[in-house]
Amino acid sequence: MIVDKINKLALPATIIIASLILGGFFYASQENKQKSIEKQQQIKLQDDRQQREIKIEQKKQEQLAKEFKEEQAKEEAKQALDTCIGSADENYNYGWWEECKAQGKLTSKCIEIGELTFDEYLKKYGLTSEEYVKERNLTPSIQLGIISDYLSARSDYISRWSECSCRLLVSTADRFNKSLEKDKAECFKRYPQK
Questions:
Q1: What is the pTM assigned to this prediction?
Q2: How far is CA 193 from CA 63, 75, 104, 129, in A?
C-alpha cells in the first residue's frame, strides 16, 4: 500500500520535477536569447550612433572645405581685380605721361625717370644708392645700412615719376579719364566680387 501510494505519487512527482527542469532550461534559454537580442540591439544602436557621428563629422569637414574653397576663390578674385585695376591705373598714368612727353611738356630729367629703371638710372650716372640718398637729401627710415639706403632711394625715385606730369587740354584729359573708367568697369565685369 505504501509502495502503491509511492508509485502513484512517483509518476506525477517525476512529471512535475521533469516539467520544472525542462521549464527551467526553456526559461534559461529564452532569457539567454532575450539578453542576446538586447545586446545585439545595443550594439546596433551604438553602431548607428557612431555612423551618425561620423556622417556629422564628414558633413562638418565638407562644409569647412567648401567654405575654405569659397574664401580662397573670393581672395583670388579680389587679387585678380586689384591687379586689373592697378594695370588700368598704370596704363592711365603712362598714357598721360606719354602725352605730356609728346607735347614737349616734360623736362629731360622727367623723361629719364619715366624711361629708366632705378638701377639703370644709377648706372647711367655712376651713382650708388648711398650717393643718390645724399644727393637727394633723403633720410632712410630704417637703420639697416645699404639695404635701407637702397629702399629709400628706390622709393624716392619711383615717387619722382608722379612729379613728372603736366596739364593737358580738357578734351585730352577727358579722353584719358573715360578710358580709365572703361578699363576699370571692364575689370569689374571680368572679375565680379561676391
A1: 0.56
A2: 21, 10, 42, 42
